[in-house]
Write a structure and sequence with these properties.
The chain is of the alpha+beta class. It contains 13 helices and 15 strands. It folds into two domains: 10-236, no CATH class; 248-372, no CATH class. It is globular and about 65 Å long. The N and C termini lie far apart (48 Å).
Length: 383
Amino acid sequence: MVGSGTGGPRTLPREEFPAFFEALRAEGYAIVGPTVRDGAIVYDRLEGVDDLPIGWTDRQEAGRYRLERRSDRALFGYSVGPFTWKKFLFPPRERLFTITRDGPSFSVAPEATDPTRLALLGMRACELAGLEVTDRVFQGGAVADPGYSARRSRILRVAVQCGQAGGTCFCVSMGTGPGVRDGADLVLTEILEPGPHRFLFEARTRAGAGVLARLNAPAAAVADERTAGEIVARTASSMGRSLDTAGVRDLLRETLQHPRWDDVARRCLSCTNCTMVCPTCFCSTQEEVPDLTGATVERWRRWDSCFNLAFTELHGTAVRKSGLSRYRQWLTHKLGTWHDQFGTSGCIGCGRCITWCPVGIDLTAEIAALRVAPASTSKEAPR
């Protein structure tokens, strides 16, 4: 639904798409979006339209990812890549503050955040849902994370409706896509046919309307609005995966000794790939880095993972010593106890954890197996 005061949908021909980049810059935004690098579609700073993955698509399955050429010149004809927007709000490595010795005392200088305003171009519906999840994590408690909040206040969310589903996507099951419902400032739909290559623009907020007002874009035809709806419906009907979420929180709580955990533990490498590519995983650790003189020390925060043996180390002993216990912790938190903590699932159905698992572990298959395979009768404490 278009927000109050934002006007109706507009149509922009493909050849005029560079004007959209100019409009974003005129509103004071640097542009971050998809581009091809190192054999994948990643998110990075964009200088112009030619930096987009023009004519590229991705093929994804459990443990597999590859790029292929399309038969057209689509700008957004892919699903999702290995990187997420999270890194622009919650950096993989961040200096929090610097402590400097001052005689018998010391001073603390908090790290300033980059003031650059970013237009995040190409956000998908599931990724917007992921942003809502991380907002709850970093801003929903009694104390908000200052770095995240500062960066979050300076972004423009430019969403693109999905024109195809990836082989590991299951956003329909999670209620997070593929159609963009909430959380965007601007929504684009790329229309390749019938007719010429064009884009349908919808402003959802006043910030989005401010960008759209800079474009000489006519009101969208009713036929284009209908075509945009058909594109989303077609994508929804072609999901690569599905996940039965009914009662999943209780299912996970009641199957802690299920033999399926032994099976997945034999395959899991504890490599942390699933947590590194996940849009919502937020585990981190902190470390102090002194200089050689001992006059200053910096505190840094970096991403960590519940798959790392030392992550739960207390008094020199790891709480979860086995790969089984660490995988079980991740999955039961992501799909189960996340509800207790944040009132929602921690999974958005993007499928990245399936694609980028080296051994192709598929959480949708694991949940299905927990539902149908015989459970262990052992009463021993969870491993």
